[in-house]
Amino acid sequence: MIDLKGRVAVVFGVANKRSIAWGIVQQLHAAGATLAIGYQNERLRAEAESLIQEVPGAEAFQCDVSQDEEIERVFAQFKERYGKLDILVHSVAYAPADALKNDFVLTSREDFRVAHDISVYSLIALSRAAAPLMTEGGSIMTLSYFGAEKVVPHYNVMGVAKAALEATVRYLAADLGKQNIRVNAISAGPIKTLAARGIGGLGDMLKAHADRAPLHRNTDQSEVGGAAVFLASPLASGITGETIYVDSGYNIMGF
C-alpha cells in the first residue's frame, strides 16, 4: 500500500460522485494524503461541501480556474492553511455544447478559445501558482483521453484541446523538472460522468471500448485514482512528461 501521509494534495474538478476527480480524491485519501478540493463557483459549493463529509480532514475551496485573480487568491489560502503543496490534480475540461453537437469544421473561433482556455491553459496557470508551494518537489497531473490522438466521433474540439493538453504536460515537465516537480497526464478510458454525457453517442463509445479493449470492459474511476496515487508517490519519481493510459488497453489496438 502506498503511503502518502504528510502529503498535501489539491484536486480541481470534483463535480459530483461520478466525476473522475472524485475517484482520485477517494484513492488519495485512502493513501493518507491531506486533501483540498477546488470547486468552481457558489452554485457548486453545497455539492463540494457534501462530498468532503466523506473525506475526513478534507477542505473545500472556491476557484474559477478561468480567472487569474481567483487562482492567486486560492493558492494564497493554500499557503496559509498548509504551508506547502505536494500534489496537484487538474481534472478540468469544458467545451460549449454547440462545439460538441456540430461537425468539427463548424467550430466557432470563440468556442475554440473557450475550450482551450478552460481545458488547457488552466493547467499552466495552476502549475505556475502551485510550483512555489512545492518546496520539496511535487507531482502535477491532468486528465486526458484517447481522442487527443485519434478521431472520436462527437469529441470534436475537445480532442484538439486534449492534444494541446498532452503537449502542455511535456513543456511543463521540461520547465519544472529543475524544481523536482513532475508533470504527467492520465489518459482514461470513457467513463459515464456528468461531463461525458454531453458527448453524443456516449453509449456506443462505452460499448465499443468494452468490446475492443484487451480487458473487455470499461474503466472505473477508482482505477484512474489508483494511477494518480502511483504518480503522486515516490514509486513514480523517475516519471515525468508522460501520458499514462488507464483504459483497459484500448489504446494499443489497431482494429
TrEMBL record:
The active site is at residues 145, 155. Its EC number is 1.3.1.9. InterPro entries: Enoyl-ACP_Rdtase_NADH (IPR014358), NAD(P)-bd_dom_sf (IPR036291), SDR_fam (IPR002347). Keywords: Fatty acid biosynthesis, Fatty acid metabolism, Lipid biosynthesis, Lipid metabolism, NAD, Oxidoreductase. Pfam families: adh_short_C2. It is an enzyme of class 1 (oxidoreductase). Substrate binds at residue 95. One of its GO terms (molecular function) is enoyl-[acyl-carrier-protein] reductase (NADH) activity. It comes from the Bacteria. NAD(+) binds at residues 13, 19-20, 40, 64-65, 92, 162, 191-195. GO terms for biological process: fatty acid biosynthetic process. It catalyses: a 2,3-saturated acyl-[ACP] + NAD(+) = a (2E)-enoyl-[ACP] + NADH + H(+). Pathway: Lipid metabolism; fatty acid biosynthesis. Belongs to the short-chain dehydrogenases/reductases (SDR) family. FabI subfamily. This is Enoyl-[acyl-carrier-protein] reductase [NADH]. It comes from Acidobacterium capsulatum (strain ATCC 51196 / DSM 11244 / BCRC 80197 / JCM 7670 / NBRC 15755 / NCIMB 13165 / 161). The gene is fabI.
